Amino acid sequence: MNLKEGDPYQISAPEFEHYTFVDASKSLTGTMDQEDQTIVLYYQKKEHTLTVQYIDKDTMTKIHSDYSTSLEYGEKYSIPEYAIDNYVFQSATGAPNGVMPDEDLNITFYYIKNGSGTLDVNLFTINKDQFVTGNYSGDVSQISLVINNKFYPFVSVSGSDNHFQYEASKLITSLAQDVWLYAYDKHGKELDRKKSFAR
Questions:
Q1: Which member of 62, 100, 175, 176 lies 3.0 to 4.6 Å from 71 by CB, making a disulfide possible if both were Cys?
Q2: 23 — pLDDT class (breaks 50, 70, 90)
Q3: Cα distance between residue 184 and residue 118, in whole Å
Q4: Superfamily for 47-113?
Q5: What does the alpha-carbon distance between residue 159 and residue 163 come to, in Å, rounded to a whole number?
Q6: pLDDT digit string (tens) for 100-136?
Q7: Number of H helices, E strands in the chain
Q8: Are strands 105-113 and 131-138 parallel, antiparallel or unpaired?
Q9: Where in the chain is the domain with CATH 2.60.40.10?
Q10: pLDDT score at 108
């Protein structure tokens, strides 16, 4: 701007997308001197907060302290996928690697418990027994019958007696068949497998 000596001035810092005004080399208000004046306005990229929560997907409880950091707009980020005892990472609500948007970003990492469990299978009598039976323990939620490497449908198990049965009278017909029972947790992770013997 063109001013005469002694003229008052007042400068407003212009706004720029993704930037925040932080300082100036001189006061933005004053009176014009005898000589030309140069005032430098300083800006910095806007900072936003990236917050990550680590949650048990089944109970929706926090299993690790939050990860939080301040990043400038456009800055690359990489979120740590913590190894948490007895848990395995399952999914996330956002990309673990990306570029910071022009706003705060909240991402949730979901983990599931690393289940454990066992099977005990009873002897099956061909042409007599209707079910393969046995007992299970731990986090077993479903069982599959496998005959000669062919998987049959899952059967859900529940109850305080930890007993299971699988309809097999029309499936197990020969001592030559290779018969197994597979145990899984509710997320479909295999926990145990046991051979089923017949007579």
A1: 100
A2: very high
A3: 9
A4: Putative peptidoglycan bound protein (lpxtg motif) (3.10.20.320)
A5: 8
A6: 998 999 999 999 988 889 999 999 999 999 999 999 9
A7: 0, 18
A8: unpaired
A9: 117-195
A10: 96
